[in-house]
Amino acid sequence: MKVNGITDVFFDLDHTLWDFDKNSAFTFDKIFKLNNLDINTDKFLEYYVPINLKYWRLYREDKIDKKSLRFVRLNEAFLAVGMEFDKSLVIKLSEDYITHLSTFNYLFENTFEILDYLSLKYNLHIITNGFDEVQHKKLNNSGISKYFKTVTNSEMVGVKKPNPKIFHYAIDKANAVMDQSIMIGDSYEADIIGAQNVGMDTVFFDVNDKNVDKNLRSVNNLIQLKKFL
């Protein structure tokens, strides 16, 4: 059923439009080869993915800072696969990862199609917890920056989703109205609950079919947003 009265659509970026897991896997494969490390990327990612999610949750809750996040997620993953490296090498790998991450730009299926469709009807925006220096590269290198009138990231606001302040900041920056705006994202806590708490409509991008709340508007392919918008 269509959501009426919407003028502005806000998207999360990572895991919603930009296929973070796929791009991250290619990046690790690249930096391991660049640094002559004999590491099975698939095996490494089995440990890294949940470890990364754990530390991103702590980062979102302001329990660790960006520098710590970048180091500990890698160091813990290496230890988990039975490899221990000097701190200097882990730091270098963390820097190489950020440098090369935005050189891979796989998007989720139908990203361009849905953005073409929505941009004719709504003002489109981004709200992301990602790092400032990386997110703009992702948008530009993937070819989707042209669709978005504003981009709000957590570093410019000083807080992260689901903190209400980032949503209010994004709404003000977009010159939008809260009850005429809708948030689309993959994180139930950060995107959906965060947006609902400030009075925004939401659509959950349930790409992994988590079915966290049967009462939510949800899609598992971006083209399905046409049902609601």
TrEMBL record:
Transmembrane segments: none annotated. Pfam families: HAD_2. PANTHER family: PTHR47478, PYRIMIDINE 5'-NUCLEOTIDASE YJJG. NCBIfam families: HAD-SF-IA-v1, YjjG_YfnB. This is YjjG family noncanonical pyrimidine nucleotidase. It comes from Hyunsoonleella aestuarii.
